[in-house]
């Protein structure tokens, strides 16, 4: 049985988010270990390990551009889901999986420091016997029965990764971004409301509101199950809790996870004004090179 420490909030949250997320893991010293360092030409790829709770550590790749004048902007790069639980951080740095998902590598080649951890239940954090099975519903249910949520843990881990970034001399702590596709795109909508250090976020193919998720071909992903939240609230209420962040909603016409993109954008305009942009593409659940270049330009301008 996995044990979780008794926890509480590390900083005040908006009352709506605080009630929805429930208790959050306590912050602990990072205790960073560098596991490897690989010269990748225009950047160095480090593998690091750090503590996210008193008894859990996470490994992540950090890509640092070579020869650039610092401090540099930094971006949290969240991997996709795709039911591929054996993949996580390795896909976004280009070591495995689909080359169109290697945005942590591509951003490092463009002068950003990037960090890519494994989300709970993926890659090195998949504890199933075959290393490929879905353990996320256990991670959710074992929290719910104790009045906690999986999303609180996931967002806490985003903040811990940002803690590591801002501790590095190469990183400008005032220029922190976030990017994600699919699962990562969903998290990209929540993270700036949870951690106001994020100045720019890109949500690609993951902007579906709860009101459009109650169908058999979509459903609600385990990480975003919040008891009672959708009875009176939706993603527009989350976006209204942003700090200074700008948001790019990047969506496609033939992707079920992009349903409601234009409606969400219209709602976000009411709270974020010109800090929110919409990019719509005639395509499916893909993240092509032109789509990524649009995302990178947004991060370069807003981060």
TrEMBL record:
Keywords: Hydrolase. Signal peptide: none annotated. Residues 91-294 form the Dienelactone hydrolase domain. It holds the Pfam family DLH. GO terms for molecular function: hydrolase activity. Belongs to the AB hydrolase superfamily. This is Dienelactone hydrolase.
């Amino acid at each position: 049985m996995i044990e979780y420490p008794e926890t509480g909030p590390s900083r005040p949250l908006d009352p709506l988010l605080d009630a929805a997320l429930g208790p959050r893991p306590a912050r602990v010293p990072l205790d960073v270990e560098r596991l490897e360092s690989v010269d990748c030409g225009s950047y160095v790829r480090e593998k690091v390990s750090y503590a996210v709770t008193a008894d859990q550590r996470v490994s992540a790749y950090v890509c640092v551009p070579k020869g650039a004048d610092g401090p540099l902007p930094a971006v949290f790069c969240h991997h996709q889901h795709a039911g591929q639980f054996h993949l996580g951080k390795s896909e976004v740095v280009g070591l495995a999986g689909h080359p169109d998902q290697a945005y942590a590598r591509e951003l490092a080649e463009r002068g950003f420091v990037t960090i890519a951890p494994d989300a709970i239940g993926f890659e090195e954090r998949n504890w199933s016997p075959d290393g490929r099975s879905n353990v996320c519903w256990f991670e959710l249910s074992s929290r719910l029965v104790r009045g906690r949520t999986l999303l609180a843990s996931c967002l806490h881990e985003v903040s811990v990764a940002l803690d590591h970034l801002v501790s590095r001399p190469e990183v400008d702590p005032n220029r922190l971004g976030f990017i994600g596709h699919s699962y990562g795109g969903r998290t990209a909508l929540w993270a700036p409301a949870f951690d106001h250090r994020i100045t720019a976020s890109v949500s690609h193919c993951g902007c579906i509101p709860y009101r459009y998720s109650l169908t058999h071909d979509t459903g609600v992903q385990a990480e975003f199950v919040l008891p009672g939240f959708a009875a009176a609230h939706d993603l527009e209420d989350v976006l209204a809790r942003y700090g200074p962040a700008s948001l790019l909603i990047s969506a496609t016409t033939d992707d079920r996870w992009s349903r409601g993109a234009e409606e969400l954008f219209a709602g976000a305009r009411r709270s974020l004004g010109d800090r929110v942009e919409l990019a719509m593409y005639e395509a499916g659940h893909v993240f092509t090179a032109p789509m990524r270049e649009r995302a990178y330009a947004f991060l370069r301008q807003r981060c």
